[in-house]
Amino acid sequence: MKQGKLQQMDGRWVRITDIDGLAFEGLCEREGAEYCFHEYGRDEDALKIDNWLFYRSDILKVEIVEPGDVDVWMGKPLHRMRLDPVPFARLDSGEKTIELRLYDEKRRRIQAGDVIRFESTEDETDVLYTQVEGLRFFPSFDELYRALPLTACGYSEREAQSASPRDMDRYYSREEQAKWGVVGIELSLL
Fold it and tell me: Tell me: the pLDDT tens digits for 7-35?
């Protein structure tokens, strides 16, 4: 990868294919060799997408692309979601393995095997990458709450005793729930 081409990618939406053939897509930042040496101990220019750094010698191909609704991360579709700090921490600890969402147009694009990047609403630089293991569809949160283990959905043992499907009303209106239905997204940490 030539030096000049790396400079052209700064601030652009790109797809980087690494020497292993894995593709990553997103907004790109160029990191100079001096900065990389100071920060990472490697004297080589690099491109950065999210928290991923790609050194020039590890890049097979870089293409400028149009930003889409779904990015690509390690060759898999990447979806982005935000989580409040408590459920974020429970997902990070492995206690929470099911994310509850409205099954709207955005979530209808998610499939098993895809990757979801969760950002903490408290600190957008605090991120978790998860893989979608499965999707459980329900007409309402009432049915979902009866069918799924609530501790896997992010409730503590004590909270699960008084948990209610109405807890989700703070995120989604009853009209939205009736229109779209809901989904439990089964996840594993990457």
Answer: 677 778 888 888 988 888 888 889 999 99
Contact present, 147 and 93 (Cβ < 8 Å): no
- The answer to whether residues 56 and 102 belong to one domain is no
Are 83 and 167 spatial neighbours (Cβ–Cβ below 8 Å)?
no
CA–CA gap between residue 162 and residue 138 (Å, rounded): 21
The pair of structure tokens assigned to 86 is 């408590």
Radius of gyration of the chain (CA): 20
In the chain, the DSSP E strands lie at 13-18, 23-31, 46-49, 52-55, 59-64, 71-73, 76-83, 98-102, 115-120, 127-138, 182-189
Instruction: Give the structural domain span for 8.
Output: 3-64
Assign residue 112 the CATH number of its domain.
Answer: 2.30.130.30
171 closest CA partner among 109, 114, 121: 121
Model-level pTM? 0.72
Six-digit token string for 94 = 């492995």
Which contacts (CB < 8 Å, 24+ apart) does range 26-33 have?
A: 26/50, 26/71, 27/67, 28/62, 30/6
**Are 15 and 54 found together in one domain?**
yes
pLDDT tens sequence across 34-67:
999 999 999 999 999 877 899 999 999 988 887 6
